[in-house]
Amino acid sequence: MYKEFAYIYDKLTFDIDYEKYSKVIKNELNKLNISPRSILELGIGSGNMTKYFYNTGIYYKGIDLSEEMLEICSKKFPSIDLSKQDLCNLKVDENFDFVFSTLDTINYILDSRKLQSLFYTIKEHCKEVFIFDVNTPYKLIDFMGNNHFVYEYEDIFYTWVNQYYEKENLVDFYIDFFVKTEDNLYRRIRERQTEKVYTLDTIRFMLYNSGFTNIKIIDFDTGKLLTDKTQRALFICTI
Ligand SMILES: C[S@@+](CC[C@H](N)C(=O)[O-])C[C@H]1O[C@@H](n2cnc3c(N)ncnc32)[C@H](O)[C@@H]1O
After folding, report:
1. In angstroms, what is the span from residue 214 Cα to ligand 1's centroid?
2. Which residue ranges have their beta carbon within 6 Å of ligand 1?
3. 131 and 21 Cβ atoms separated by less than 8 Å
């Protein structure tokens, strides 16, 4: 996952409005009167969200499992402390004012016991606020699950074939990229990803279990109240 694909990820996020999402998060931080001096970003990827939160005056640490994503990120942000780790066994020594994770990284944790243990670890190391988003069951089951999508963007033609497994509550994405080469041929890159469908109540319960008692959930796309068509839910958990 996120190996060869890492190099085209940046290009394919052309339709993701990171600036809008960062404003929703900053708005929540402002409401809480929090100006973090230390930040931990989980599933930092190629650093697309990072640029809205990083500045040289703070301690910034980023974690990701993909070496390729981290390599791209380190070129953009050479002074960030990057660490290749699986969030399922997260180990950090420091404490952070603000811990966050965006673009459904949490849905990639397929074992709910591992997610529970991740929340425990975050609670231990988070001093002020933990903010993250998840793809909702509505998005993963009704919108994406068992669906096919075909896109073309610049020199990349790609298809998504999705499969929802009800018993396991998992969605598999089979993505085929055809990337135009210099000799006008197309190179095929295959990517398979799996996301877990978590209900918002399940996540809220796990957060409570780990000691987060002050939890707010909003629609990440609008920054407003959740609706039954919310695709990305944003959790704001204060200490
Ligand atoms: C959809 S990308 C989001 C990247 C970035 N947060 C963004 O907003 O563009 C999901 C990221 O989570 C990382 N990831 C998935 N499972 C992981 C795990 N178990 N441990 C650490 N990172 C993981 C992937 O490598 C990928 O970089």
Report:
1. 26
2. 2, 43-45, 48-49, 64-66, 69, 86-88, 102-105, 108-109
3. no
CA of 63 to the centre of ligand 1 (A): 9
Nearest ligand 1 atom to alpha carbon 69 = 27
Mean pLDDT for 194-217 is 98
Best substitution site from 69, 105, 234 to test ligand 1's pocket, by max atoms within 8 Å of Cβ? 105
Which single residue is written with the structure tokens 């694909």?
5
Residue 135 pLDDT: 98
Average of per-residue pLDDT values in the chain:
95
- pLDDT reading at 12 higher than 90: no
Token pair belonging to 214: 């002050």
Q: Which residues pair with 55 in a beta bridge?
A: none
Residue 6 CB neighbour total at 10 angstroms: 21
**Distance separating alpha carbons of residues 64 and 68, to the nearest angstrom:** 10
